[in-house]
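To: structure desk
From: M.T.
Subject: fold request, one chain
Message: Could you run this one when you get a chance? Sequence is below, nothing fancy, just the single chain.
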Amino acid sequence: MTDEDLDRIARRYREFVTEAAPTSPRYAELAAHVAGSEPVLRLLTGLPGPKRQPNRLLAALQLLAGVPADGDALDRRVVEDGDRLRRTMLARATQTDEPARCGALLPVLPQLDEPLALVEVGASAGLCPYPDRYAYEYDGVRVGPQSRAAPHGGRPEWPPGGLAPSVA
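Reply: Done. Structure tokens follow.
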């Protein structure tokens, strides 16, 4: 792994700090620590890209011995139990309720005839059927409400800023 690889992983953890802070201050604090922690970054470089996700690392830590009290405790666990942590991260997956994946649907929805109903089952049921309740960014153009959770109702605004979707 190069310094560039370490920087890329650290940057992803710093981005996660912003994502996690409103709902999980502890995970935000730990992710901020990871971004500057040589032992943790080295552990992450030994994993395939998709297995390096912040939520996967933090979930594996929690599964094995609970959420670390702070960054020093996280480092100790990586140093002392890194092999087991690595095996857990490789073997396990996380299930997230991720409404951001609605961003792939949003450009197509206004092109469909109304009325329109979305149905989803699984962990995201209740979140993803409402893509108009979330804000998205396409090529730097924000679409949707300013607040993450405030619904604005109606059809999604499209095309934003002259961007047009392409539908195959």
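Reply (cont.): Confidence is low (pLDDT under 50) at residues 148-159, 161-168. Let me know if you need anything else for the meeting.
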